[in-house]
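User: Please predict the structure of the protein below. I'd like the answer in structure-token form so I can feed it into my own downstream comparison script.

Assistant: Understood. Taking the following sequence of 563 residues as input:
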Amino acid sequence: MMMFGRKAGYEIKSGSAPKRRNPIKVMAIFVFCLMGFFVLLSKFKDGPFSYDLFTTLDFKPWKNDVDLDDIIKQNMITGDYFTNQVEIAEDKLLGGLLPAGLDEKSCMSRYQSVLYRKKQKQQPSSYLVSRLREYEALHKRCGPFTESYNRTLEYLNSDGQQNYNSTGCKYVILTAIHGLGNRMLSLASAFLYALLTNRVLLVDPVTKFSYLFCEPFPEVSWFLPSNFPIMGKFKSFNWKSPENLRKKKSHATWTSSPLPPCLYLHLEHDYDNDEKQFFCGDDQKFLENVPWLIIKSNIYFIPSLFTIPPFQEEISNLFPDLGTVFHFLGRYLFHPTNFVWWVVTEYYNTNLARADEKIGIQIRLLNKYPNPFKRVLDQILDCVGTENLLPQINETKSSFVVQSEKLNKTKAVLITSLNSKYFEAIKTMYWNRSTATGEVIQIYQPSHEEYERNRNEMQNIKAWAEMYLLSLTDKLVTSGWSTFGYVAQSLGGLKPWILYLYEDYKAPGMSCQRAVSMEPCMHAPPYFDCTRKQYTGNTVKLNPHIQHCEDKLWGIKFIDRDL
């Protein structure tokens, strides 16, 4: 029997005399190990406290002003990269929500996302599943460059002078504006409107969503072809445009012939009382036979679609629990491209995957106030402390004692903010200090852009990656009014703690409020009486399944059916 042991540079074997090691060899090994240690230290000097989503990932460096196509080609992120790295998901179709048979390698996130989420409690209704399959068939028959699309386009090119021989195809074109969160909420709203009215949804390619999202429908694209006749006018469309529904309807009768081939619908936050009549049954009746509708929007307008009598029953059938509307629409429509998915999964696996619990904190200052940092930081710390999301610092024990007692419990905190100050402050708070519960706290911030640039596609990629990462957390704190936070909470099926707005935070213990549902808030509801044709204000009695938002009292949102 051999016994092995080490002492002072000697190797001792049973039955033999001690044999001295070569001191030069020992020194060389020591120097090599020391160099390796400093390399690792330089790369991970912040330990479990780090930020910058992209410099921490192993790919060729790039900046905000380089060509995205070149970046994707340089890094060669294709479906083959993922195929050997993850197991096959059992419920990859999300209860039938997603269509089967699509090319998995072209969009790995579609069927792999379930591997990164907890098993969803809610399941899509069988009616929603069947209507989505019907829509996909309609999109395949009427989508861009199909025979039906080309025939309907001819009617548009003739300005309605040719006879409109119905192909059974009608369209809603969305041009979504402002921040990425606003555009995603508008896109989901337009898709549901298309589903309710048996129209095909086409997306203005100016949005450049192709860098962010996979094509959601089988075989035929959802992007409007670049040669669409009046695409050049989209940017200038507003409530004064001659294509506006109100302009057309003012000199048209319900039986006007020929019908206008195209109408513009202004559904931005600044729409006036005339535009708000879109949410009245009479306007929907007028729109039924107009082949082309163009919507410009920056709001989530689904709650007001529910107030239109012809749509109310259908929406209820599609979503028996109205608190899941955007959750299912978002999980159906928004799948990160392979490049974005690579960024998300690499960051998640490197920093978050091994934590026992993941806490997301989304910080967004929408109004400019002098020196808000200290006040907002106090509010965040008060919220996470009062709601027991993060433990207090233990001032009496050393970190070494606490860590030795409870090394196996970790909380990873994912902070998203344009500013790095909050990350630095919370990192400093937990750095080398123990917690009252003995938990080990790890702080991460993927990026800090300082300024929002909606038209910068690189920043949009980072924003989408961060939204998705937040949606993978177990508990979430969001900022009031933030559409960025709305998307994250709904995709993740999370009821967040919402930080009150800067001016509404009055005292400790009153820093945040738990949301009643995961649904986004509609910031600019119409509050319009369709019978009297007048504005009502926010005193109107709401549907029992709709209430005012926690963070915007004149906004409205769906609540869960069981409340």
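That's the full token string. The two ends are 71 Å apart (CA to CA).
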